[in-house]
Amino acid sequence: MTGNDIADFRPRLADLTTALGLLTRLPLPLSVFTKDQTRVPAHAAWAYPLVGLVIASLSALAGWVALSFGLPSTAAALFVLLASIASTGAMHEDGLADCADGFWGGWTRDRRLEIMKDSQIGTYGVVALVLSLGLRFAALAALIASGGYLMALICAAVMSRAAMVAVMYALPAARPAGLSGATGRPPKHAMALAVLFGVVLVGWVLPMALIAVLAVTFGVALVARAKIGGQTGDVLGATQQITEITVLLTALAALQ
């Protein structure tokens, strides 16, 4: 069953719990997903940007505590990153690393998917993680030093989760037996609502980031389609990481 098989999509408050259970490691109740349930997990995709808001709030709190103890902006940036990674269990970082290894370590679609499924990390994955963490740290440290990191952090977390939903909707699941395949395809209105959350927030706070995020998200989707013919949970994780970095760097550029 796909998310579009059910026409009467309606957002539900319980969807937030489902989305938090999927995208974080926070101790929340989460029902077991089964293929025969009447409401597929992808219906909760509209709430993914709200999960980003929760994660950004926890990360900002960690940064505020660090600054309250008199730590410099560089140390506060590390605590922000730590809170974000701890909240999600590094699942998005893992997806980025797996995509880097699979996309550029395999010569065929099946081999790329096989590499992505392997729990071991390769050279491409290490390089991708170092670059991701380094760019986010540098941007956050500079933004914290400027005193304007809160809204940039929120915009990055919300918009990057909205981009995930857009890719989920635009591309078929490359591995039906994987997490993305089990989650399903979001209904059109769930996708539209998620994207609306991101566009309204970023368009209000940081409008110059919208074009950059659109270009980056489209680029990730094109590469994923070319490499494996669709999307997986790893592709969605990579989408989140790359778009988050894009928003943070755009916010930093806006300060210059």
Automatic annotation (TrEMBL):
Which keywords accompany this UniProt record? Cell membrane, Cobalamin biosynthesis, Magnesium, Membrane, Transferase, Transmembrane, Transmembrane helix
The protein, known as: Adenosylcobinamide-GDP ribazoletransferase
Q: Which reactions appear under catalytic activity for this entry?
A: alpha-ribazole 5'-phosphate + adenosylcob(III)inamide-GDP = adenosylcob(III)alamin 5'-phosphate + GMP + H(+); alpha-ribazole + adenosylcob(III)inamide-GDP = adenosylcob(III)alamin + GMP + H(+)
Q: What is the lineage of its organism?
A: Bacteria, Pseudomonadati, Pseudomonadota, Alphaproteobacteria, Rhodobacterales
**Which GO molecular function entries does the Swiss-Prot or TrEMBL record give?**
adenosylcobinamide-GDP ribazoletransferase activity; cobalamin 5'-phosphate synthase activity
- Where does the secretion signal sit in this chain? none
A Pfam family that the UniProt record links to this protein: CobS
Taxonomically, the superkingdom here is Bacteria
Cellular component (GO) terms are: plasma membrane
